[in-house]
Write a structure and sequence with these properties.
241 residues; globular; 10 helices; alpha/beta; 44% helix
């Protein structure tokens, strides 16, 4: 199992924290009971702010069939169904306790008739080829042991013209970009960097590290963009436009 090196500033505490937490999260696949409840509460802070932005952007596309890979407690999809009418909306998570929390949250928001959730591994999603308009993922990439396989799975389940949006926090974003994100999220800069170190991957891995290699070797069409501490991979099926 490959574990990325810390960012270029290898002597920093954040770089070391990132390395340790990526190891832990790769080793333990799926958030266990107890920890899942804690995550459900804590995710309503910085991570949920990102999901609000992603849901708003996704709703503007008016997709009909959407999935959230590594859906966690369901914050992203439950927000999306409030903003847009979807024909099919499913969350996928390897953690059974987290899937139970998703379903509980859906019930509390009166949305069980509009969403579904399945317990499954992102490396082999139980979805038909070409069945989705849009695949979303926030904060899941750093958990994945074999990202190249997942990129190919993303391309497989997308229809022609469909897209996968895969988001991660990156603690090594330039200072000016961190400051811009701090203003947008209304969060302290240090908190953003800490969240990104504990729950993300450094830009270096997208630019010249193992993720760059995994993307190239996967054979999918992709584009990497940076917006403050947020990094996004856009994946399309080959020839998907």
């Amino acid at each position: 199992m490959y574990v990325p090196r810390p960012s270029s500033n290898t002597g920093t505490l954040l770089g070391l924290l990132n390395r340790v937490f990526v190891r832990i999260q790769r080793w333990k696949q799926g958030i266990p009971r107890g920890a899942a409840d804690i995550y459900n509460r804590l995710a309503d802070t910085t991570i949920k702010l990102l999901q609000e932005l992603v849901a708003g952007e996704a709703a503007r596309l008016n997709p009909e069939r959407v999935a959230d890979m590594g859906c966690g407690p369901g914050s992203l999809l439950l927000r999306l169904v409030e903003l847009d009418e979807l024909t099919y909306c499913v969350g996928i998570d390897i953690s059974r306790p987290m899937a139970h929390i998703f379903w509980r949250n859906a019930g509390q928001r009166g949305a069980r008739h509009r969403v579904d959730v399945v317990v499954a591994d992102a490396h082999k999603m139980p979805l038909r080829r070409g069945c989705l308009d849009l695949l979303l993922s926030t904060g899941t990439l750093h958990h994945l042991r074999r990202p190249g396989e997942v990129f190919r799975e993303c391309a497989r389940v997308l229809r022609e013209g469909g897209e996968a949006w895969i988001y991660e926090f990156s603690h090594d974003a330039p200072k000016a970009e961190v400051e811009r994100t701090a203003r947008e999220f209304k969060r302290p800069k240090l908190l953003l960097r800490l969240v990104a170190a504990l729950h993300g991957l450094p830009r270096r891995e997208f630019e010249e590290g193992y993720l760059r290699r995994e993307l190239e070797e996967s054979g999918v069409e992709y584009e990497v963009t940076y917006e403050g501490v947020v990094t996004r991979i856009l994946v399309r099926p080959v020839g998907g436009g």
